[in-house]
Amino acid sequence: MSIQDKVTINQLPTGVPGLDEIVGGGLPEFSFNIIAGAPGSGKTTLAHQFVFANASPERPALYFTVLGESSIKMLRYQQQYTFFDPAKLPGSIRFINLSQVVLEKDLGAVLEEITKEVEKSNPAVVVVDSFRTMVRKPQSDMDLQSFIQRLALFLASWQATTFLIGEYAEDELRDNPIFTVADGLFWLRQTAERNSIVRKLQIVKLRGQDSVPGLHTFRITDSGVQAFSRTFGLTARKRNPPSDRRLCFGIPELDKMLGGGIREGDSALIAGSSGTGKSVLATQFIAEGIRHGEPGIVAVFEERPQAYAERATSLGLDLETPQKDGKLTILYLRPLDLSVDETMHSILDAVQKIGAKRLVIDSLAGFEMALAPGFRADFRESLYRMIFALTGIGVTILREPLRRCLNFQRRSVRDLVLEVSVENCKKEAPASLPDWSQEAVSRPPETLRPLRGEPVAVLV
Amino acid sequence: MTTPPEMRDLARCLLACEAVASKTSEPLESAILRVYEKLRQSLGAFAGVAGFQSLALRALTQAKSEAPGLWAVKIAADGSLQGLGEIKTQIDMDEDPAGEGGVILIARLLGLLLVFLGEAITMRFVQSVWPDAALEDRNSEVRRKA
Fold first, then answer.
1. How many CB pairs under 8 A join A and B?
2. CA of B99 to nearest chain A CA: how many angstroms apart?
3. What Rg, from alpha-carbon coordinates, does chain A have?
4. Backbone CA torsion sign across A348, A353, A356, A362
5. Could you tell me the pLDDT band of residue A420, with boundaries at 50, 70 and 90?
6. How far is residue A393's CA from residue A240's CA, in Å, rounded to a whole number?
7. Scanning every residue of chain A, which has its alpha carbon at the shortest distance from the alpha carbon of B126?
8. Alpha carbon of A307 to those of A231, A310, A319: distances in Å?
9. pTM of the model
10. Domain residue spans of chain A
């Protein structure tokens, strides 16, 4: 069959930032999906976001509530999210309560009621929240599987994209016949790790298109659910071709040692003991870029942007003006329960916003500390993915390392490790810029050692 | 606590709307019952019979403290209003303005919606049931006084 003969499956926006990328572009139209997870995992909020993103007066959404959360309270809470548009009620989004039917009748009557409302409204979207509570009534005539089978057939024929919301525990995922009916199965997890709560989302199945496999972190904020793809949303983007262009530090002798600077699109690690001037060197890299019209990003974890800029000012580097001019963003990433994917999302947003060419992460130790404990175990793997993704879009990265995994980081760095030390250094912060040129000049050329066959400079 | 005047005005507006729609000089009691019944049908579909009934019970309790003439009124299990005929004489507003129990009951019910759902959703809900009601000005009035 040629491509022209194949049916086109339209993709609908999920309304959840980051989720379209994870599901492979959008949710397949007319698909029959299940959102499963424990109480409080964000199932209802996710469904609401989809509903608000797709309902229209011509093709409304029907939101059936069964037993569980009161409809009035649900709306009371859901309207707090920014995606909630009251203007869509009740013309585009209709909430219908089926609790009486469930309590007094059987699943056949529930199906009949849903059928009646669907035929009346011709909806584009149908949600049943929570369908699982329906089977807790012992006198049901139909079992849930049969009910779902018939519901799926009916709603597909009526060209509706459907979400069933159900509360399921982790061990119910396997061998559950209910899930075989569904085209899509979205599994939301919320786990406590030490004192942190980590939310993860998995597309267990999605017929008709490729979704990004694995567990993706997500967060619920006042904007609703926001998902962070493991691939950082970069799968669809073309990687920039390698460049021979060099990005200099503005330190003549150091740039000379590096053959003009760090190659564009490479990553470099600045290693060194406390007080050796790693942050100063990184700041110079950013400031020099701005002087050459190359916007920059500094991601800081251990101090506020204002303090970072003030420290630069004390060293004679102006970071205030470029921030006002939109040439520099100092990202302060909230040091609490972060995931690497979420951090990357913030960095990529900032990169795209100002067209950044240089990025400094200061520091990896602070970055790791800001992560929720559960993510620290995957830090190395995440770091690898992050560097690959960022350098792939042509950003040149300078990072300050985490001492205990320096060896790994050396391996993960594609091109360059700058290891700095100050002989007889004092513990207090440097009052002025270290004389890098002097340091470099004082070293014999033999100290420049190649790493993995790439141009590498190591300052010892 | 008495019913906020803007909620009473909204209730009266809906009653007037029903009176116009019926095109007959029906007693106020009938208009109150029709407004209540429309609220029951549409709110019941959204919140469920039990959900509406509990709201209506709360509204009636509040209204009774303000309009003791409603003593005979009850909310049935399906949320319908019973015993309004008992207070028929009291709801003639010309003769007994203090006895507008039915108006107060409707106002209290709308007031509860306002508390739980906020102005935007409440007004959109009311507008969907009474599309011809002139609620635009009232909307801003409720917002100003809320």
1. 57
2. 30
3. 27
4. negative
5. low
6. 5
7. A90
8. 32, 5, 11
9. 0.77
10. 3-228, 246-447
Count of domains forming chain B: 1
Q: Which of A70, A86, A98 is facing B124, going by the closest CB pair?
A: A86
pLDDT for A446 equals 34
Q: Which long-range contacts (CB under 8 A, 24 or more apart) does B38-45 make?
A: B38/B129, B38/B130, B39/B106, B39/B109, B39/B129, B40/B79, B40/B80, B40/B81, B42/B125, B42/B128, B42/B129, B43/B113, B43/B125, B44/A97, B44/B79, B45/A96, B45/A97
Contacts of B128 in chain A (CB under 8 A): 90-91
Q: Which residues pair with A371 in a beta bridge?
A: A338
pLDDT score of A409 more than 70: no
The pLDDT of residue A423 is above 70: no
The ipTM estimated for the assembled molecules is 0.80
The A residues from 62 to 81 touching B (CB cutoff 8 Å) are: 65, 70-73, 75-76, 79
Mean pLDDT of chain A: 81
E strand map for A99-257: 125-129, 161-167, 184-193, 196-206, 215-221, 224-228, 246-247
Highest mean pLDDT among A182-191, A383-392, A429-438, B81-90: A182-191
| CATH homologous superfamily for the domain A3-228 | P-loop containing nucleotide triphosphate hydrolases (3.40.50.300)
Q: Is CATH 3.30.450.40 the right assignment for the domain spanning A246-447?
A: no
Domain that holds residue B97: 5-145
